[in-house]
Amino acid sequence: MRWPIAALLLSLAAPALADAPLLTSHLRIHDPWVVAEAQSRTYWLFSRNDPAVTGDRRTGIMAYASGDLAHWQRPKLVFALPEDVWAKDGGWAPEVHRWKGRWYLFATFHNEAAALPSPGKRRLYRRATLLAVADRIDGPYSLIHEGEPPTPPGDMTLDGTLHVDAAGKPWMVYAHEWLQQGVGTIEALPLKDDLSPAGKPSILFRADAADWVVGQRQPEGDTGYVTDGPELLRTKDGALLMLWSSWGRHGYVQAQARSESGTLAGPWTQLGPLVEQDSGHGMMFRAFDGRLMLVLHRPFKRALAKFYEMRDAGDRVEVVREAVELDGEAYPTHGCPMEVRDAGC
């Protein structure tokens, strides 16, 4: 009886938006980011622009709006990458954060023609998280700092997120690419109030610090260890957690880590997978009915948005159940995929 009751509560928590014909199962979403905007009681779901659904061919970020996380308006383009900046493609892992009374967009872009020095056979090029700002959550967003990222220009980085520490100081936490280092890292960069760099980055942990991570053999002959999608959150007991993703035995994995000091400095303890079977790059938010929710994408290719109800356990977060009333899908969170279970994995 719990699932129908939960669905009813969620439907009552926010008004249904007019003209919301799209179901969650319709949304092709990679690296989803949800903001529960309290003033309008609207959920905003951000992703890379898809010209097939927005009708706009520009590289940028689109946003869907919903009153119940199950029915969505057709998306609108909220940010278009200007033609006169160094970046030319991308739009990965968009995040939207409230800071100093305005909305800030973090999204990863790149330029394959802007080569970086490479110590090996792999060709490297500029990739970084750019920042943009708007007065409204649905934009339009404009680049800040003339389109230059906060991270060092020689570093190949992605998936930047905003973290505000206990003293109110902003940081950008991001993944430093395995493409450049072999073993990817999660790093933190102190920022000024205008979100420009305030110092040098520091390494929080390496991908191979987690025993569940499996390296990916590369055409160049080496093995890459991936770090993706960091997001920071505080538990009810004050623990500082990080969601992040990499590759495990059976595909992409959503995992968590915990800082033993309660600060970015760590040390960071790897707590293992939350959701497996080709699922990851998730983030957490509080629904209007008070429930803690996780959204991620699955599968890695041609990904769909997938929601879970979560529990704050004080020193970690735990999956309660799949929110099947939102996407209609029932899928196990751990263990072997059905198609390989008989192989003894």
TrEMBL record:
The keyword Zinc-finger does not apply. GO terms for molecular function: hydrolase activity. Pathway: Glycan metabolism; L-arabinan degradation. Residues 1-18 form the signal peptide. Keywords: Glycosidase, Hydrolase, Signal. Belongs to the glycosyl hydrolase 43 family. This is Glycoside hydrolase family 43 protein. It comes from Sphingobium naphthae.
